Amino acid sequence: MKVIRTKNYQEMSKMAANFILDKVKSSSELTLGLATGGTPVQTYHYLAKDYQEQKTSYQHVTTFNLDEYIGLDPSDPNSYHYYMDKHFFSKVNIPSDQTFIPNGLAENLEKECQAYDEEIKKHNGIDLQLLGLGTNGHVGFNEPGTAFDQHTHIVALTESTMQANARFFNNINQVPNRAITMGIASIMESKEILLLVSGKEKNDALNKLLHGEIDKHFPASVLNQHENVTIIADEDAIINTNL
Ligand SMILES: N[C@@H]1[C@@H](O)[C@H](O)[C@@H](COP(=O)(O)O)O[C@@H]1O
Predict the structure, then answer these.
(1) How far is C-alpha 62 from the geometric centre of its chain's CA atoms?
(2) What average pLDDT does range 84-111 have in this prediction?
(3) Which of 20, 24, 152, 190 has the lowest tally of Cβ within 10 angstroms?
(4) Phi-psi region of 61 (alpha: psi -120 to 50; beta: other; left: phi over 0)
(5) Res. 241: pLDDT tops 90
């Protein structure tokens, strides 16, 4: 894994946006895996800014989001559909039929998961997967203990993830307790991975990822087995990691 060190969150975000823009500009077709959460917000902001200023086109880009809460309508401000529209899709020229996010309202959730995997396959897999890191090592919504061989599936969220995400809701009781997420196998099948890590609260998690064992109780550790991972981390996340 290649680790790029940045001064702060802004610098991490700018570098991540440039990393993605390089791929967007140099490919005739590109399938991006996208993440939500607090970490990539400024990355999307810089992509939107680039579009405003440089008009980098996304007509040839297809996107697959990692996850979505079960039970939230796309118009719900806490849904990842809403998040993606707000921060990215509405700001660039990506055609709406080229953006995929799991449907957390599907009548048959199992079928929805299978259909999502099929769609990814149809697009020849993901070229670049953007990832954030949960404080407990989760990636997407793959919580500690998730088997490494799973594709898109339904998960029960842990108390710690619900607590961590409660800041986006009015109170923790409104945080859905289930989600659909691409699995560890889906993530590992992507050709390249870009992991963003920012802030002191991610310090332990980054340390474990870099120096700990590969263990399903710390899902992100599996990334050590992928051959093309770049981590962009800021000083606060890196401190005490011996880097
Ligand atoms: N499902 C999301 C993940 O995709 C995200 O990467 C992670 C970290 O979130 P944040 O960037 O807000 O710390 O947790 C959330 O629960």
Answers:
(1) 15
(2) 98
(3) 24
(4) beta
(5) no
How far apart are alpha carbons 30 and 55 in whole angstroms? Answer: 17
List alpha helices for the chain, DSSP H. 9-26, 41-54, 80-87, 109-122, 159-165, 184-188, 203-211, 235-238
Predicted confidence at residue 243, as pLDDT, reads 78
Ligand 1 centroid distance, CA of 40 (Å): 9
Residue nearest to atom 8 of ligand 1 (CA): 134
Which amino acid type is present at position 73?
A: D
Kindly name the residue from 112, 117, 127, 143 that is annotated as catalytic: 143
Q: Which fold does the domain 2-238 belong to in CATH?
A: Rossmann fold (3.40.50)
Cα 169 to averaged position of ligand 1 atoms, centre (Å): 14
For the CA of 179, the nearest atom of ligand 1:
1
Contacts of 43 (CB under 8 A, 6+ apart): 13, 16, 17, 20, 130, 196
Q: Tokens in use for 132?
A: 């954030």
Active site residue 142: no
What's the confidence (pLDDT) of residue 50? 98
Inter-residue contact 49 to 84 (CB < 8 Å): no
CA of 238 to the centre of ligand 1 (A): 18
As given in the structure block, the two tokens for residue 141 are 């919504």
Show me where the domains of the chain are located: 2-238
Average pLDDT estimate for 215-224: 97
Residues with CB under 6 A from ligand 1: 35-39, 66-67, 132, 134, 140-141, 161, 165
Is 136 annotated as catalytic?
A: yes
Nearest CA to ligand 1 atom 9: 37
